[in-house]
Write a structure and sequence with these properties.
The chain is an alpha/beta fold. Helices cover 44% and strands 14% of the residues. The protein has helices spanning 13-17, 30-40, 59-68, 81-86, 98-101, 123-126, 142-150, 159-171, 173-203, and strands spanning 21-28, 48-54, 73-74, 89-91, 107-110, 132-134, 153-155. Helix 2 runs parallel beside helix 3 (59-68) and helix 8 (159-171) crosses helix 9 (173-203). The longest helix has 31 residues, at 173-203.
Length: 210
Amino acid sequence: SEISLHKSSIPFINAFKQDKQILIAGSTWPKDEEILYTVFQQKGFENIKLVIAPHEINKVNLASIRSLFKGAVFYSELNDEELVSQARYLVIDNVGMLSRLYQYGDVTYVGGGFSIDGIHNILEAATWGKPVLFGPNHSKFKEAENLIKAGGGKSFCNKDQLKAFLQEYFSDEISYKKASEAAQSFIKENKGATEKIIGYIQENRLLTNL
């Protein structure tokens, strides 16, 4: 996909990740953050790291995240690789990095699934060939339904389901590989479909200046 062509690295992320497994949670809302926090306190998650890129970057929201995720480091404050390597939580408090950020995740999480408007862009996450998890409000988004059918993503309704899905992906190599390959295939197939549609339009001169 277009996004996956731009594999520019992001400073400090590799230092943060070290050799640990990592979940990248993008476009999160407060409900997403609460569920993620609860799951990450569970037994078995001690050695898994979490990157949070909140949808709303404002003082109130960032303060709430800081109080919830004790010891979290904030991207705008980073200047020491040693410090970030020891942290368990990293909060991305600037814009424009999300589509590149997903490449570092072993598993990805797209927020908004507990909000009225529904989930955010899952294609940004799936394009890197990683399993995608998201909340229940996704019925308006056909690509989410199709990704679930393809096996590259899963929707969860509560913390227990999220915990189970994360445990599956982080501990079952076969399941993880299958979901990752499904996400990658889903993107390739959709890209091909888009190109076919544009080709048809061009051939039949239904659209000019393409």
